[in-house]
Structures are given as structure tokens and as C-alpha cells.
Amino acid sequence: LAAPAQDEIAVNQVGYLPGAAKVADVPAGRATAFSVIDAEGRTALRGRLGAASTWAPAGQAVRLADFSALKRPGRYRLRVEGLPDSPAFDIGAEAYAALNAGAIRAYYFNRASTPLLAEHAGPWARAAGHPDDHVIVHASAAGPGRPEGSVISAPKGWYDAGDYNKYIVNSGITVYTLLAAWEHFPEVLRDQDLRIPESGNGLPDLLDEALWNLEWMLAMQDPADGGVYHKLTNKGFDGVVMPADAKGERYVVQKTTAAALDFAAVMAQASRVFAAFETERPGLSARMLTAARRAWSWAQAHPREIYRQPADIHTGEYGDPELSDEFAWAGVELWVSTGEAAFRPDLERLPIGVPSWGDVKGLAWVTLGSHRQDLSQNDSVVVKTRIMALADQLTATWRASAYRVGMRAQDYEWGSSSVMLNRALMLIQGYRLAPRPDTLAAAQALFDHVLGRNPMGRSLVTGFGSRPPRHPHHRPSEADGVDEPVPGFVVGGPNPGQQDQPGCPVRYASPLPARSWLDHFCSYASNEVAINWNAPLVYVSAALQALTPK
Ligand code: G3I
Ligand code: 9MR
Ligand code: CA
Fold first, then answer.
1. CB-based contacts of 331, cutoff 8 Å, min separation 6
2. Ligand 3 centroid from CA 309, angstroms
3. Beta strand 89-91 with 229-233: parallel, antiparallel or unpaired?
4. Is the distance from the beta carbon of residue 353 to the nearest atom of ligand 1 less than 6 Å?
5. Beta-carbon contacts of residue 463 (< 8 Å; ≥ 6 apart)
């Protein structure tokens, strides 16, 4: 397929930590050398470009410029004869601190049931939307204590994405990933000031933000039987209006096995995290563990309640017929939090993979990898072997790629930015067990790909990098009358499925997998935001900040 030649040098537009692997992609031409120019126009480094090679997912011939040797903090551009200079980027010891804080603040901007005040939200201040204190039990969710049409209260939580609904399955992996960042890298997150309403209350801000959603999740459990509603939703998607102007009736829909297990996993994990904050939140940890056990028991009694979208409901499905991974993940979290062997899944037969909302087995290995000291010798070996096998495979894909980024054509799907970031997250698990430079470089490359080292030359995070997305499929950003979109959100990213194309007034620039991206509000298949996509951005930015050698 014909592709427009990339005419720009692509770099991570947010920048690099001094000790990081630093690579730029240069459109292949006759030039064989590059230089890095500092803010005063002086040459800080010269180097040779790699051999020209074609990268199939973007149909493009590139040469790599490796400038890892440059470690001195400053602002730079890459220069190659015959091409425009690259976008400017920083090298600095806190290169990802603002991005990490911004990515967490994005959750604050998506809070339901509360006004965003100017002192916290700046120009994106807005009135409260979706109180969710009058939520109707849908026919699909009716049960003994709660017949069809009865009313419950389930306020707070985050809007899932560019829409205003709240889905338990997607909340599961999201909160897990945020709390894992806390569990693994508290030194980066402990003293962060996110300028949210709870800042300064004695809890780390990341945990305050996570609690906003956890409190909603707790309200999604039916107290009668421990089952968990799949989602809290309108019947159809809201129009392009601000939250306060979206007034459709809200429903809780069908209790599902996936919702119960994702809920159980996260509550078990959260009970570990909040055990350290008994003074600030008395009783919370115990309450979460009880909720987790009850949801687990419900799932044992209802092992195949797959989500079936009712005829009168038209919002997101998060339907997933494969539940072995959800059982394994919830089992691992409960096992690690309680020490009770009855929860332990059969690790020898549990595969590993890159996590996504519908495939959570990788999360079980993430937790096991950071609790190896509590495992038997045999289990500990299994955990290390499994994680290293995946990390080595992801590293091999990176090494083999002409673009030096570990993404194959088939990895570009709806939410590809989260595929990049979750691949990086799994590489980081490998690095935590065996700190090999290539493993970290492969993670860095995927992170760079999200932040501008891509064939579009665009950062995929609103408000970060010199050329960020301007028109995300995010109702508040579209409806608020503020030019700049709400900052800190990673957009879905290139997706050759282009499922939104029939409704779009403009066409994607290219059908090629790594270029199938459209910075237009219409493009929910490539340019929406979502809570599960932002969570690995939070994790990976914290991880690189913590783990990159000085
Ligand atoms: O995984 C398969 C892959 O194996 C296959 O090759 C490829 C070919 O099309 O499809 C892949 O599945 C895609 C899947 O996303 C990947 O995660 C499906 O086609 C695609 O339809 C599916 O899209 C989901 C989308 O909802 C539509 O259901 C996204 O995962 C999911 O993130 C997205 O979630 C929506 C919520 O429903 C509503 N709120 C917004 C949110 C974000 O867009
Ligand atoms: O806005 C919706 C987005 O959150 C979903 O991911 C997407 C796919 O389910 O659907 C979007 O809503 C669109 C609807 O499906 C079709 N009509 C146009 C809506 C976008 O404004
Ligand atoms: Ca699954």
C-alpha cells in the first residue's frame, strides 16, 4: 500500500531521563549522519544513522539515530541534513514527573457526581453531573431484595471514557494498574501534589483518586447476595453535552461473573493497600476484603454469567466469554491478600500475556512477581520463568523491528496506545526481576511511540508533547467551549479497523496499521480516551522515573 513518506524526524516529544536509551526514527534518505543541537544552537552530540530498513506497519523506510550517549540535561533538537529539525525535547532528571501527575489528574477530570472547581480544574472547571443517587434496577439485574424498577444509589466513580457511563469490568483493570503503580513505586508517588480536592488530607493523592472509583465500585455490589452489576448506564449514549446537561435515566444492568471477579480482584488488592492507612480510613481495608470474598463466592456459584446486552440498552458492552483469566486473577489477589491456599489457581497451567480489559491473566503474574518473597521456592521459580519468557519475547519483537518499537501490525487495534503501554508494563515486570538494559530500552521505546516517536509525529497524550491530540472523542472536551482538550489523557491510537469511518466527515490519512489515526472528535475508534488506557500510562511513567539508571 502506498504511504505518504514520513518527512519528519520522530522523537519522544516529552523527553528522556538522562540515563535512558534514546532513539529517534529518521526518514531514510541519503544522509548517514545526525547531530543533536542544544538550546544555544551548539552541537551536543554527533552520530551515524543506522542502515535504512522498511517498517511494514507504517510502510516506511527509516534509519535509527541512537543518541543514548547524550546525558546532559537540557533542551535539544535532532538535525539531519535535508530534513527539518525534530521537535524539541528535554533531557532531565524529572522528565516524566509532570506527565505522570497529569495522567493521574485526568481521572479527577472524569469524576462523576461532583463539580470540578476552578482552583483544581482551571479552565476545565464544570458543574456536577450524574449524581447517580437514583439508579433504576434494570430487568436484567432484578433479584430478591431488588426487583425490577427498584432504586439504588451508586454515586461517584469515573466516567469510563468519552462517554458518561460506568463499567465494572473496565474499572477493574484500571484501578488495579493504578494501585500497582503505588505498590511498586511509592517513592515516586508518595509526596505528589495533584491539586485535587483531597490533596493534603494525609493520604497520597493517587490513593485519594483511586478511592473515588473504589467507593462507587463498592456500591455496585448487591448486599443481598454479593453479586456485582456489570455497569451503571444510560439506555443509549448521551449527546455531545456537558455532564450537568446529560439527564437521562440511569440503570444498573445484569450481574455478571466477569464483574464479580474483577471486583473481587481489585477489592482484595485494595484491602492490602489500605491496610497501611488504618488510621486515615478505619475499617476500610477489612470492608474491602469482605466485599472481595463475597463477590468471589457469588462467582463460584455463578461461573458462567456472561454479559448479554439487553435489547433496550445500547451503551458499551465489555462483553467477554473467556473467564478463566478472571478466575485466576481474582484467585491470585485473594490468595496473596489472605494467605489462604484455597484461592490459589493452578500456576503451572496458567499462561501469561499482555493485559487488556478482557484478558487479565497477565495481572495475576504482575502481582505474583512482586510477592515472590511470600511464595514457595517452586512457585517463585514458575513466576520468574513465566514473566521472563514474556519479557524476552517482547524484547525480541523490539529488536527485530526496523522502527525499533515492539509493535507488530496486528497489535494496532482499538486502544492500541494501551497495547503499547501494557506491553511496556510487562517488560517492566521482567526488568524488576532481572534488570537487563535491553528490557528497559524495549519498554522505553513503546513509551516513546505513544509520545511522538511514531509515523504521525504526534504525541498521543493531550496537553503533553509539542504536537498533542487536539480533538479527542471526549464529550467534556468537545462541549466545554475551551480550545484545549482536557489534559493528561492518552487517546486510543492507530486502529486500522476504523470502525467509526462511516460517521466521520473526514478520512483517516492512511489505511496502514501504524498510521490509522484521526485527530477528530468523530473518531471514537482511534481518538477516544478511556480510563483503562490511561492507567498503564500512569504506571509506565512512574516506573521509568523510578527504574531508569541515573
Ligand atoms: O482482539 C481482537 C483481535 O484479535 C482482532 O484481530 C481484531 C480485528 O478487528 O479485533 C480485536 O478486537 C477488538 C477489540 O476492541 C480489541 O480490544 C474489536 O474488534 C473491537 O470492536 C473492540 O473494541 C472495543 C470497543 O469498546 C467496542 O466494543 C474496545 O476494546 C473497548 O476499549 C471499547 O470500549 C468503549 C466502551 O465500550 C464504551 N466506552 C468507551 C470505550 C472506549 O472506546
Ligand atoms: O461515544 C461513544 C463511545 O464512547 C463508544 O466507544 C462508541 C462505540 O461504542 O460509541 C460512541 O457513540 C457513538 C455511537 O456508537 C454511534 N453514534 C455516534 C456516537 C458518537 O457520538
Ligand atoms: Ca477474560
1. 343, 344, 345, 364
2. 17
3. unpaired
4. no
5. 102, 484, 485, 486, 487, 488
Mean pLDDT of 258-271: 99
What is the per-residue pLDDT across 484-531, written as a single tens digit (0 to 9) for each? 999 999 999 999 999 999 999 999 999 999 999 999 999 999 999 999
Mean pLDDT confidence for 33-56: 98
* N residues, the chain: 550
Read off the pLDDT of each residue in 180-186 and give the average, rounded to a whole number.
Answer: 98
pLDDT in tens, 204-250: 999 999 999 999 999 999 999 999 999 999 999 999 999 999 999 99
Ligand 1 atom 6: residue of nearest CA: 410
The residue contributing the CA closest to ligand 2 atom 4 is 163
The active-site residue out of 473, 474, 500, 520 is 473
- Interacting residues of 348 by C-beta distance below 8 A, sequence separation 6+: 382
Ligand 2 pocket test, candidate residues 163, 167, 238, 500, most atoms within 8 A of CB = 163
What CA–CA distance (Å, rounded) separates 131 from 150?
17
Q: Is 473 a catalytic residue?
A: yes
Whether 322 shows a pLDDT value over 80: the answer reads yes
d(CA 123, CA 478): 14
163 is catalytic: yes
Domain locations in the chain as residue ranges:
126-344
Q: Cα–Cα distance between 81 and 300 in angstroms, integer?
A: 65
Which protein residues have their CB within 5 A of the ion that is ligand 3? 320, 322, 325, 358
* Axis-axis angle for helices 324-338, 361-369 (nearest 10): 20
Q: Is the pLDDT of residue 4 over 80?
A: no
Residue pair 216/156 in contact (Cβ under 8 Å)? The answer is yes
Q: Write the DSSP string, 43-96.
A: EEEEEE----EEEGGGTEEEEEEE-TT--S-EEEEEE-TTSPPPPPEEE-TTTT
Has 528 been annotated as catalytic? yes
pLDDT band at 545 (very low <50, low <70, confident <90, very high): very high
Rounded-to-integer distance, Cα 363 and Cα 352, Å: 9
- State the average pLDDT over residues 99-108: 98
| Ligand 2 interacting residues, C-beta cut-off 6 A | 161-163, 237, 316, 503, 524, 528
- Name the pTM for this structure: 0.98
pLDDT of residue 6: 56
- Considering the four listed CATH numbers 3.40.50.1100, 1.50.10.10, 3.40.50.300, 2.60.40.2470, the one that applies to the domain covering 126-344 is 1.50.10.10
Segment 313-334 shows an average pLDDT of 98
